[in-house]
Amino acid sequence: MEQEKCSMETTGKVITCKAAVTWTIDAPMSIEDVEVDPPKAGEIISSGICGSDNHVLEGDFKVPLPVILGHEGAGIVESIGEGVSSVKPGDKVLTVFLPQCRKCDSCLHAKGNCCLKEDVRHPVGLMLDGTSRFTCRGRKLHNAFGTSTFTEYTVMHEISVVKLDEAAPLEKVCLLACGFTTGYGSAINKARVTPGSTCVVFGLGGVGSSVVLGCKAAGAARIIGIDINEEKLARAKALGVTDCLNPRNFKKPIQQVVVEMTGFGADFSFEAIGTIDTMVAALESCNSSYGVCVIIGVAPEKSQLAFNPMQLLSGRTLKGCFLGDFKTRDHVPLLVDDYMKNKINLDPLITHRLPFLKVNEGFDLLRSGKSVRCVLSF
Q1: Phi, psi at residue 237, to the nearest 5°?
Q2: What is the pLDDT of residue 4?
Q3: Residue 110: CB partners within 8 Å, gap ≥ 6?
Q4: What is the C-alpha separation between 192 and 194, in angstroms, rounded?
Q5: pLDDT digit string (tens) for 291-331?
Q6: Is 50 a catalytic residue?
Q7: From CA 335, how far away is CA 90, in angstroms rounded?
């Protein structure tokens, strides 16, 4: 999602704006007039459609309701609360669901990026002080993942925003707030794909397609893309996929197909769908002695991953990955620089653009498989 609004006349005041409110699951979001309270200490105001939000709408990922969803955003700082020093009104920023407080155990560890102030794994839907900034129809609304970008104005913690290059186009770099960064980093940082290797990617939506770009950038010689949507397979070929597989075209399990076509299994496998079956398939698709499997997809709540322990005892490695293993405030600006220098290309990932008020149409496109990433404009 990209948002480009900034008016100093509203600084310190309650703002009334349009927002897409999720009152209940299994129903379209409702476009409502919402009151947004001004930021408190350490907070700012700023404001694609991602599959994780769709998991919430379909009931697979539980968050407190009612809520304003959206976490892949870019906008302009409207005003700042007391103590905010890293950004100022008028700055362009990315809104990231994974904060970097630079004080907790994870942030201080060289390899950690899952800041302990995140609100994703066990969401409570409130700001760090335990309150909400959104009100609609006299009811307080919950915040989603510390971002809530499906609104003309939102409130963020300073630790959850990344300052952007003034020339960065918001309608493109918004993908760096989640989808591209998650997939690309899974290949580059977490798996550490090696030159000449064979990779297999389960799911070729926005995140899976970004994995493909990461594998290609790392020098993979063979990239096998797996999806049941033939349109996505065709698009993935243009991104660098060398072999396309649709599980519906085979009578045997797709992991068996991968092992047979590669001889011993892939060097690296990635799951970017979010089902238990595809996670197990991804694990079994990689080489039994030294294969690395990275789980990226968000599985339905209370799911339990079960597989034969021998799958790991033989030497495989199973990893999980949050936002591409990047420390957001430290590393995402480097991705923005790479984009501005044409070292990475986000254009192929954006298949649709819609005005914000058509957000429900954007989710229809996602569910139909016609969209890789739809960017909403305000």
Answers
A1: -60, -40
A2: 39
A3: none
A4: 6
A5: 999 999 999 888 999 999 999 999 999 999 999 999 999 99
A6: yes
A7: 21
CA distance 327 to 187: 15
Burial of 304 (0-12, 13-18, 19+ CB in 10 A): exposed
What is the DSSP code (8-state) at residue 43? Answer: E
Distance CA 58, CA 27 (A): 8
pLDDT in tens, 240-250: 999 999 999 99
d(CA 29, CA 76): 24
Contact (Cβ atoms closer than 8 angstroms) between residue 125 and residue 142 = yes
Q: Record the pTM.
A: 0.92
* Amino acid in the structure at residue 153: Y
The catalytic residue among 17, 47, 50, 142 is 50
Given the residues 71, 142, 157, 352, select the one marked as catalytic: 71
Rounded to a whole number of angstroms, the distance between the first and last alpha carbons of the chain is 9
Structure confidence by residue, pLDDT tens digits, 333-343: 999 999 999 99
pLDDT for position 46: 39
How far is it, in rounded angstroms, from Cα 326 to Cα 312? Answer: 26
42 pLDDT band, cuts 50/70/90, is low
Q: Is 157 a catalytic residue?
A: no
- The secondary structure of 220-275 as a DSSP string is -SEEEEE-S-HHHHHHHHHHT-SEEE-GGG-SS-HHHHHHHHHSS-BSEEEE-S--
In Å, how far are 74, 89, 98, 121, 260 from 183, measured between CA atoms?
A: 18, 31, 15, 19, 26
Q: What is the pLDDT of residues 94-110, one digit of tens each?
A: 999 999 999 999 999 99
Marked catalytic residue, from 47, 55, 352, 371:
55
pLDDT tens-digit profile of 131-187?
Answer: 999 999 999 999 999 999 999 999 999 999 999 999 999 999 999 999 999 999 999
* Angle at 107 (CA atoms; ends 104, 111), nearest 5 degrees: 135
Is residue 178 annotated as part of the catalytic site, yes or no? yes
293 is catalytic: no
Q: Which two three-digit tokens encode residue 116?
A: 């302990």
Q: Is 142 a catalytic residue?
A: no
